[in-house]
Prior knowledge:
Blueprint: H1 3-11, H2 13-42, H3 50-60, H4 74-77, H5 108-111, H6 115-130, E1 136-139, H7 144-158, H8 161-164, E2 181-185, H9 187-196, E3 202-204, E4 212-215, H10 219-222
Antiparallel strand pairs: 1-2, 2-4, 3-4
Amino acid sequence: xxxxxxxxxxxxxxxxxxxxxxxxxxxxxxxxxxxxxxxxxxxxxxxxxxxxxxxxxxxxxxxxxxxxxxxxxxxxxxxxxxxxxxxxxxxxxxxxxxxxxxxxxxxxxxxxxxxxxxxxxxxxxxxxxxxxxxxxxxxxxxxxxxxxxxxxxxxxxxxxxxxxxxxxxxxxxxxxxxxxxxxxxxxxxxxxxxxxxxxxxxxxxxxxxxxxxxxxxxxxxxxxxxxxxxxxxxxxxxx
Length: 239
């Protein structure tokens, strides 16, 4: 081998080593990038679901409900009242979770309603069942102590006596205490009464309380009278 050939042979390995090194580095980079993409794909994204957002907003402004409805928690209903150790069924409390009908006369909330109102409710409920609709008594007759407790709760919830008066009457003015009012649920039953109640003399009295019904016998002939916007417009509440 001459000197020229020997020099060429000694310089050839360098490019090969460089190429091999670059190839190894490329494989390592590719493996690193692939590993990052796999990790990113397997990590769950953190999002705010619409349901959780709506749940938060709905709790900030509670929707209206019938005062004293059966869905009220036990702690709200059975707290001590003046002159009594607790409030119970004898005060007109509807048992928690009970689907009380207008035919459950053994329950004071139903049995102590005014006879004319109760008779009209039972006739209406019988006809409504033929349409696949069942009435549920959310609240009926109430003792003065129970009404006072509901009023106190409403003042605490709405912030003032004036605001609470849009939803809960005093024991002296409440048609529930006299047995002349009933709160009917669920929604389809109240909707059925809003369409057919006048034929039985049953009328919604307040526009803001779709569940509240009283007996107006003249409605059978003349239709139900114009509703008050809320109880504060009712002259009976100013006694």
